[in-house]
Amino acid sequence: MFLISKSVRLSKSLDGGILLDMERGGIFSLNPVATRIVELLGREQSVFSLVDQIGREFGISELLAPDVVNFLSTLRDERLLEDSEGNPSQR
Asked: CA–CA separation, 17 vs 10, rounded Å?
């Protein structure tokens, strides 16, 4: 399970959201689905349950799983995720 890093802040808007990396100064724009994924990461969900919930909320088909995994990979690559012990997620 992954969590958004403690140094990252989410700012939401009607169009989606922005992730602010307070430690490294990065800014990442998010669409509404990505914003919701980030919100759900705060609940320590498995990737399977995350995909299931996003699919139900947004009416997206089972083809959603690869997109969610790719998005999480991008967050991991940008060091915006950490593991449940608070360590930066390594690839």
From this structure: 7
